[in-house]
Amino acid sequence: MQAIALTGKQQLELQKRDVPAINQDEILLKVHAIGVCGSDLRVYNHGDDRIDYPRVIGHEIAGEVVETGERVTRFKPGDRVTLGAHIPCGECIYCQQNEGHHCIKGHSMGYQADGGFAEYVVLPKKFVQNGSIQKIADATSYELASLSEPFSCVLSGLDEVGTKPGETVVVYGAGAIGCMYIAALKRMGAAKVIAVQRSKTRQQKAKEAGADLVIDPSAENTTEKVKAATDRLGADTVIVTAPSADAQRESLEVARTTGKVLLFAGIKPVTENPINTNHFIYKQLKVVGTHGAPRYLHMEAVKWIDEGLLDFSSFITHTFTLEDTEKAFQTALSKEGLKCVVKPGERDRKLV
Protein backbone atom coordinates (compact mmCIF):
# COMPACT_ATOMS: atom_id res chain seq x y z
CA MET A 1 0.00 0.00 0.00
CA GLN A 2 0.95 3.67 -0.21
CA ALA A 3 1.30 5.84 2.89
CA ILE A 4 2.45 9.35 3.66
CA ALA A 5 4.85 9.32 6.61
CA LEU A 6 5.93 12.35 8.59
CA THR A 7 9.66 11.66 8.97
CA GLY A 8 10.62 14.95 10.62
CA LYS A 9 9.42 18.53 10.92
CA GLN A 10 8.03 19.66 7.55
CA GLN A 11 9.04 16.34 5.99
CA LEU A 12 6.34 14.20 4.35
CA GLU A 13 7.44 11.09 2.48
CA LEU A 14 5.42 8.87 0.17
CA GLN A 15 6.25 5.31 1.18
CA LYS A 16 5.44 1.84 -0.10
CA ARG A 17 4.40 -0.40 2.79
CA ASP A 18 2.82 -3.80 3.29
CA VAL A 19 -0.88 -3.73 4.09
CA PRO A 20 -0.79 -4.12 7.87
CA ALA A 21 -1.96 -7.32 9.49
CA ILE A 22 -4.49 -7.12 12.32
CA ASN A 23 -4.98 -9.15 15.47
CA GLN A 24 -8.20 -10.59 16.85
CA ASP A 25 -9.30 -7.30 18.44
CA GLU A 26 -8.55 -4.89 15.60
CA ILE A 27 -10.13 -3.58 12.39
CA LEU A 28 -8.47 -2.90 9.05
CA LEU A 29 -9.98 0.15 7.38
CA LYS A 30 -9.57 1.23 3.76
CA VAL A 31 -9.28 5.01 3.91
CA HIS A 32 -11.43 6.83 1.36
CA ALA A 33 -11.17 10.37 2.74
CA ILE A 34 -8.97 12.13 5.29
CA GLY A 35 -9.23 15.80 6.19
CA VAL A 36 -6.28 18.07 6.93
CA CYS A 37 -6.78 19.46 10.44
CA GLY A 38 -5.13 22.51 11.94
CA SER A 39 -3.50 20.18 14.47
CA ASP A 40 -1.96 18.21 11.57
CA LEU A 41 -0.39 21.45 10.37
CA ARG A 42 1.00 22.19 13.83
CA VAL A 43 2.50 18.70 14.04
CA TYR A 44 3.91 19.09 10.53
CA ASN A 45 5.56 22.41 11.37
CA HIS A 46 6.58 21.93 14.98
CA GLY A 47 6.41 18.23 15.85
CA ASP A 48 4.69 16.84 18.95
CA ASP A 49 5.98 15.06 22.04
CA ARG A 50 3.42 12.30 21.49
CA ILE A 51 4.74 11.43 18.03
CA ASP A 52 7.72 9.28 17.15
CA TYR A 53 9.04 9.51 13.59
CA PRO A 54 8.20 8.14 11.14
CA ARG A 55 4.46 8.47 11.77
CA VAL A 56 1.43 8.46 9.50
CA ILE A 57 -0.60 11.32 10.95
CA GLY A 58 -4.23 12.34 10.34
CA HIS A 59 -7.40 11.68 12.32
CA GLU A 60 -10.34 13.08 10.27
CA ILE A 61 -10.96 9.67 8.72
CA ALA A 62 -13.76 8.05 6.76
CA GLY A 63 -13.50 4.69 5.05
CA GLU A 64 -14.62 1.11 4.55
CA VAL A 65 -14.11 -1.84 6.87
CA VAL A 66 -12.21 -4.52 4.92
CA GLU A 67 -11.24 -6.93 7.69
CA THR A 68 -12.17 -7.51 11.32
CA GLY A 69 -10.53 -9.53 14.06
CA GLU A 70 -12.41 -12.58 15.29
CA ARG A 71 -13.33 -10.84 18.56
CA VAL A 72 -14.83 -7.81 16.78
CA THR A 73 -18.62 -8.22 16.65
CA ARG A 74 -20.04 -4.72 16.03
CA PHE A 75 -18.60 -4.29 12.54
CA LYS A 76 -18.16 -6.35 9.40
CA PRO A 77 -16.39 -6.00 6.06
CA GLY A 78 -18.22 -3.56 3.82
CA ASP A 79 -19.37 -1.24 6.62
CA ARG A 80 -18.95 2.43 5.67
CA VAL A 81 -17.75 4.35 8.73
CA THR A 82 -16.31 7.59 10.01
CA LEU A 83 -14.11 7.98 13.05
CA GLY A 84 -13.58 10.13 16.09
CA ALA A 85 -10.00 11.04 16.97
CA HIS A 86 -9.42 9.83 20.50
CA ILE A 87 -8.30 6.41 21.71
CA PRO A 88 -9.75 6.27 25.26
CA CYS A 89 -8.15 3.85 27.69
CA GLY A 90 -11.57 2.98 29.10
CA GLU A 91 -10.25 2.87 32.66
CA CYS A 92 -9.37 6.37 33.90
CA ILE A 93 -11.83 8.61 35.71
CA TYR A 94 -12.66 10.59 32.55
CA CYS A 95 -13.30 7.48 30.47
CA GLN A 96 -15.52 6.14 33.25
CA GLN A 97 -17.49 9.40 33.04
CA ASN A 98 -17.94 8.96 29.26
CA GLU A 99 -15.44 11.73 28.61
CA GLY A 100 -12.92 9.69 26.66
CA HIS A 101 -11.73 12.81 24.84
CA HIS A 102 -10.18 13.83 28.17
CA CYS A 103 -8.58 10.44 28.78
CA ILE A 104 -5.54 10.75 31.04
CA LYS A 105 -3.38 8.78 28.62
CA GLY A 106 -4.14 11.25 25.83
CA HIS A 107 -3.84 8.79 22.95
CA SER A 108 -5.25 9.66 19.52
CA MET A 109 -5.23 8.35 15.98
CA GLY A 110 -2.29 9.82 14.09
CA TYR A 111 -0.28 10.43 17.25
CA GLN A 112 0.61 7.27 19.20
CA ALA A 113 -0.97 5.13 16.46
CA ASP A 114 -0.72 5.56 12.70
CA GLY A 115 -3.46 7.71 11.24
CA GLY A 116 -5.27 8.17 7.98
CA PHE A 117 -2.87 9.59 5.38
CA ALA A 118 -2.54 6.10 3.91
CA GLU A 119 -4.56 3.65 1.85
CA TYR A 120 -5.22 1.48 4.91
CA VAL A 121 -5.21 2.09 8.66
CA VAL A 122 -5.44 -0.30 11.59
CA LEU A 123 -7.95 0.61 14.28
CA PRO A 124 -6.31 -0.63 17.50
CA LYS A 125 -8.05 -2.62 20.23
CA LYS A 126 -8.67 0.30 22.60
CA PHE A 127 -10.09 2.39 19.77
CA VAL A 128 -12.43 -0.42 18.68
CA GLN A 129 -13.55 -0.91 22.28
CA ASN A 130 -13.78 2.67 23.50
CA GLY A 131 -13.41 5.07 20.57
CA SER A 132 -16.04 6.43 18.21
CA ILE A 133 -16.63 4.41 15.03
CA GLN A 134 -19.90 5.44 13.42
CA LYS A 135 -21.63 3.94 10.40
CA ILE A 136 -22.71 6.44 7.76
CA ALA A 137 -25.73 6.49 5.47
CA ASP A 138 -25.40 4.94 2.03
CA ALA A 139 -26.05 8.34 0.46
CA THR A 140 -23.33 10.10 2.48
CA SER A 141 -20.04 10.48 0.63
CA TYR A 142 -16.80 9.62 2.37
CA GLU A 143 -15.61 13.21 1.82
CA LEU A 144 -18.55 14.62 3.75
CA ALA A 145 -18.24 11.90 6.39
CA SER A 146 -14.64 12.96 7.06
CA LEU A 147 -16.07 16.23 8.42
CA SER A 148 -17.76 14.40 11.29
CA GLU A 149 -14.80 14.69 13.66
CA PRO A 150 -14.22 18.45 13.28
CA PHE A 151 -17.96 19.13 13.31
CA SER A 152 -18.33 17.12 16.51
CA CYS A 153 -15.84 19.54 18.07
CA VAL A 154 -18.03 22.44 16.91
CA LEU A 155 -21.08 20.83 18.52
CA SER A 156 -19.08 20.30 21.69
CA GLY A 157 -18.18 23.99 21.79
CA LEU A 158 -21.78 25.06 21.29
CA ASP A 159 -22.92 22.66 23.98
CA GLU A 160 -20.34 23.91 26.45
CA VAL A 161 -20.85 27.64 25.92
CA GLY A 162 -24.63 27.28 25.90
CA THR A 163 -25.74 29.44 22.98
CA LYS A 164 -29.47 30.05 22.70
CA PRO A 165 -31.83 30.96 19.84
CA GLY A 166 -32.17 34.70 19.32
CA GLU A 167 -28.64 35.57 20.41
CA THR A 168 -26.08 37.76 18.71
CA VAL A 169 -22.86 35.78 18.33
CA VAL A 170 -19.40 36.95 17.25
CA VAL A 171 -17.15 34.34 15.63
CA TYR A 172 -13.43 35.12 15.32
CA GLY A 173 -11.95 33.28 12.36
CA ALA A 174 -13.71 32.04 9.23
CA GLY A 175 -11.72 28.96 8.37
CA ALA A 176 -13.46 25.61 8.12
CA ILE A 177 -14.21 25.49 11.84
CA GLY A 178 -15.34 29.11 11.99
CA CYS A 179 -17.66 28.65 9.01
CA MET A 180 -19.08 25.49 10.57
CA TYR A 181 -19.84 27.51 13.70
CA ILE A 182 -21.47 30.27 11.64
CA ALA A 183 -23.68 27.85 9.69
CA ALA A 184 -24.62 25.81 12.76
CA LEU A 185 -25.47 28.93 14.76
CA LYS A 186 -27.80 30.18 12.04
CA ARG A 187 -29.41 26.74 11.80
CA MET A 188 -29.91 26.72 15.58
CA GLY A 189 -31.66 30.10 15.57
CA ALA A 190 -29.03 32.76 16.22
CA ALA A 191 -30.54 36.16 15.43
CA LYS A 192 -27.28 37.67 14.22
CA VAL A 193 -23.86 36.16 13.56
CA ILE A 194 -20.90 38.51 13.17
CA ALA A 195 -17.68 37.14 11.68
CA VAL A 196 -14.26 38.70 12.29
CA GLN A 197 -11.78 37.77 9.55
CA ARG A 198 -8.84 39.44 7.78
CA SER A 199 -8.63 37.29 4.64
CA LYS A 200 -10.83 38.57 1.80
CA THR A 201 -11.38 35.01 0.54
CA ARG A 202 -12.54 33.82 3.92
CA GLN A 203 -14.66 36.93 4.45
CA GLN A 204 -16.65 35.76 1.44
CA LYS A 205 -16.82 32.22 2.84
CA ALA A 206 -18.20 33.63 6.09
CA LYS A 207 -20.95 35.41 4.18
CA GLU A 208 -21.77 32.22 2.27
CA ALA A 209 -21.96 30.31 5.56
CA GLY A 210 -24.59 32.76 6.80
CA ALA A 211 -22.78 35.59 8.58
CA ASP A 212 -24.97 38.69 8.83
CA LEU A 213 -21.99 41.02 9.22
CA VAL A 214 -18.30 40.52 8.45
CA ILE A 215 -15.68 42.73 10.11
CA ASP A 216 -12.16 43.14 8.75
CA PRO A 217 -10.05 43.79 11.88
CA SER A 218 -7.17 45.08 9.77
CA ALA A 219 -9.34 47.95 8.54
CA GLU A 220 -12.02 48.40 11.20
CA ASN A 221 -12.34 48.66 14.98
CA THR A 222 -13.93 45.35 15.89
CA THR A 223 -15.15 46.41 19.32
CA GLU A 224 -16.84 49.53 17.97
CA LYS A 225 -18.41 47.67 15.05
CA VAL A 226 -19.85 45.03 17.39
CA LYS A 227 -21.15 47.69 19.78
CA ALA A 228 -22.78 49.56 16.88
CA ALA A 229 -24.50 46.34 15.76
CA THR A 230 -25.81 45.52 19.24
CA ASP A 231 -27.23 48.81 20.56
CA ARG A 232 -23.93 49.34 22.43
CA LEU A 233 -24.49 46.19 24.53
CA GLY A 234 -21.99 43.78 22.99
CA ALA A 235 -22.45 40.19 21.88
CA ASP A 236 -24.34 37.58 23.85
CA THR A 237 -21.74 34.97 22.91
CA VAL A 238 -18.23 35.26 21.46
CA ILE A 239 -16.46 32.25 19.90
CA VAL A 240 -12.73 32.44 19.15
CA THR A 241 -11.69 29.89 16.52
CA ALA A 242 -8.55 31.80 15.49
CA PRO A 243 -5.29 30.86 17.31
CA SER A 244 -4.71 34.48 18.27
CA ALA A 245 -3.87 35.96 21.67
CA ASP A 246 -5.15 39.33 20.44
CA ALA A 247 -8.52 37.79 19.51
CA GLN A 248 -8.75 36.09 22.90
CA ARG A 249 -8.17 39.36 24.71
CA GLU A 250 -10.55 41.29 22.48
CA SER A 251 -13.30 38.69 22.94
CA LEU A 252 -13.67 39.88 26.53
CA GLU A 253 -14.17 43.43 25.28
CA VAL A 254 -16.89 42.64 22.74
CA ALA A 255 -18.92 40.34 25.02
CA ARG A 256 -21.82 42.01 26.76
CA THR A 257 -22.20 42.07 30.55
CA THR A 258 -23.23 38.54 31.63
CA GLY A 259 -22.15 37.33 28.20
CA LYS A 260 -20.32 34.12 27.29
CA VAL A 261 -16.96 33.49 25.66
CA LEU A 262 -15.74 30.24 24.12
CA LEU A 263 -11.99 29.89 23.52
CA PHE A 264 -11.86 27.12 20.90
CA ALA A 265 -8.39 27.53 19.38
CA GLY A 266 -5.23 27.19 21.42
CA ILE A 267 -2.22 29.49 21.15
CA LYS A 268 1.48 28.76 21.49
CA PRO A 269 2.33 28.00 25.15
CA VAL A 270 5.10 30.59 25.09
CA THR A 271 2.73 33.35 23.99
CA GLU A 272 2.35 36.06 26.63
CA ASN A 273 -1.33 36.87 26.89
CA PRO A 274 -2.14 39.31 29.70
CA ILE A 275 -5.86 39.03 30.34
CA ASN A 276 -7.85 41.77 32.06
CA THR A 277 -9.61 39.65 34.67
CA ASN A 278 -11.80 42.61 35.66
CA HIS A 279 -13.96 41.63 32.69
CA PHE A 280 -14.65 38.27 34.36
CA ILE A 281 -15.65 39.97 37.58
CA TYR A 282 -17.44 43.19 36.73
CA LYS A 283 -19.03 41.96 33.50
CA GLN A 284 -19.73 38.60 35.16
CA LEU A 285 -18.63 36.70 32.06
CA LYS A 286 -18.81 32.97 31.55
CA VAL A 287 -15.54 31.96 29.84
CA VAL A 288 -15.06 28.35 28.76
CA GLY A 289 -12.78 26.28 26.56
CA THR A 290 -13.30 23.00 24.76
CA HIS A 291 -11.04 20.32 23.36
CA GLY A 292 -12.25 17.42 21.23
CA ALA A 293 -15.69 15.92 21.65
CA PRO A 294 -17.37 13.08 23.50
CA ARG A 295 -18.66 10.11 21.53
CA TYR A 296 -22.33 11.11 21.78
CA LEU A 297 -21.58 14.40 20.00
CA HIS A 298 -19.63 12.58 17.30
CA MET A 299 -22.77 10.49 16.80
CA GLU A 300 -24.77 13.73 16.62
CA ALA A 301 -22.36 15.17 14.05
CA VAL A 302 -22.84 12.12 11.83
CA LYS A 303 -26.59 12.62 12.08
CA TRP A 304 -26.28 16.25 10.95
CA ILE A 305 -24.22 15.13 7.95
CA ASP A 306 -26.41 12.14 7.04
CA GLU A 307 -29.55 14.27 7.19
CA GLY A 308 -28.01 17.23 5.36
CA LEU A 309 -28.88 19.73 8.07
CA LEU A 310 -26.16 22.02 6.68
CA ASP A 311 -24.56 22.32 3.27
CA PHE A 312 -21.47 20.44 4.40
CA SER A 313 -20.09 20.29 0.86
CA SER A 314 -19.44 24.04 1.04
CA PHE A 315 -16.78 23.50 3.70
CA ILE A 316 -14.64 21.31 1.42
CA THR A 317 -12.87 23.58 -1.05
CA HIS A 318 -9.97 21.36 -2.18
CA THR A 319 -9.46 17.63 -2.72
CA PHE A 320 -6.19 15.81 -3.41
CA THR A 321 -4.87 12.36 -4.20
CA LEU A 322 -2.57 10.70 -1.68
CA GLU A 323 0.59 11.53 -3.58
CA ASP A 324 -0.40 15.20 -3.43
CA THR A 325 -0.67 15.28 0.37
CA GLU A 326 2.22 17.75 0.58
CA LYS A 327 0.28 20.05 -1.74
CA ALA A 328 -2.79 19.60 0.48
CA PHE A 329 -0.79 20.71 3.51
CA GLN A 330 0.66 23.72 1.71
CA THR A 331 -2.79 24.73 0.47
CA ALA A 332 -4.17 24.50 4.00
CA LEU A 333 -1.25 26.50 5.36
CA SER A 334 -1.80 29.21 2.73
CA LYS A 335 -5.44 29.57 3.88
CA GLU A 336 -6.56 29.61 0.25
CA GLY A 337 -9.84 27.92 1.06
CA LEU A 338 -11.45 26.03 3.91
CA LYS A 339 -11.11 22.26 4.31
CA CYS A 340 -8.60 20.25 2.29
CA VAL A 341 -9.47 16.55 1.94
CA VAL A 342 -7.12 13.82 0.71
CA LYS A 343 -8.69 10.82 -1.04
CA PRO A 344 -6.29 7.84 -0.83
CA GLY A 345 -8.74 5.59 -2.65
CA GLU A 346 -8.20 7.52 -5.86
CA ARG A 347 -4.72 6.03 -6.09
CA ASP A 348 -6.25 2.66 -6.91
CA ARG A 349 -6.74 3.63 -10.54
CA LYS A 350 -3.12 4.78 -10.86
CA LEU A 351 -1.27 1.91 -9.20
CA VAL A 352 0.49 -0.52 -11.52
UniProtKB/TrEMBL annotation:
Pfam families attached here?
ADH_N (PF08240), ADH_zinc_N (PF00107)
The domain of life for this entry's organism is Bacteria
Cofactor(s) recorded for this entry are: Zn(2+)
Mind telling me which InterPro entries this protein's record contains?
ADH-like_C, ADH-like_N, ADH_Zn_CS, ER, GroES-like_sf, NAD(P)-bd_dom_sf, Zn_alcohol_dh
Domain Enoyl reductase (ER), chain residue ranges per copy: 8-342
Keywords, ordered alphabetically = Metal-binding, Oxidoreductase, Zinc
What is the residue range of the signal peptide feature?
A: none
Q: Which SUPFAM superfamilies match?
A: GroES-like (SSF50129), NAD(P)-binding Rossmann-fold domains (SSF51735)
Q: Which Gene3D superfamilies match?
A: Medium-chain alcohol dehydrogenases, catalytic domain (3.90.180.10), NAD(P)-binding Rossmann-like Domain (3.40.50.720)
- What is the protein name stated in its UniProt record? Enoyl reductase (ER) domain-containing protein
Q: Which family does it belong to?
A: Belongs to the zinc-containing alcohol dehydrogenase family.
Record-level Gene Ontology MF annotations: oxidoreductase activity; zinc ion binding
